[in-house]
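Retro notes (design track)

What went well: tokenization of the new backbones is finally stable.
What didn't: we kept losing track of which sequence belonged to which structure.
Fix going forward: every design gets posted as structure first, then sequence, in one message. First example under the new rule, 65 residues:
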């Protein structure tokens, strides 16, 4: 995941195979999800560990790349 839509959009344009949409995911603060900064050469990139169904349920928006 990326911290901002602009960062996700840049990556998606560099790698079209990632897909044609960006999903906004809003993780509630009280949930047990682990988030860590990753890929130092990729600004804003984070790795997220959590329940897949919960992460899917927290998608609030899909926007085309």
């Amino acid at each position: 995941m990326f911290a901002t839509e602009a960062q996700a959009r840049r990556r998606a344009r560099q790698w079209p195979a990632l897909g044609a949409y960006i999903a906004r995911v809003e993780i509630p603060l009280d949930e047990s999800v682990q988030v860590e900064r990753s890929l130092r050469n990729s600004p804003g990139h984070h790795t997220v560990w959590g329940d897949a169904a919960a992460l899917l349920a927290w998608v609030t928006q899909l926007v085309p790349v």
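Added context from the reviewer: Residues 5-64 form one domain.
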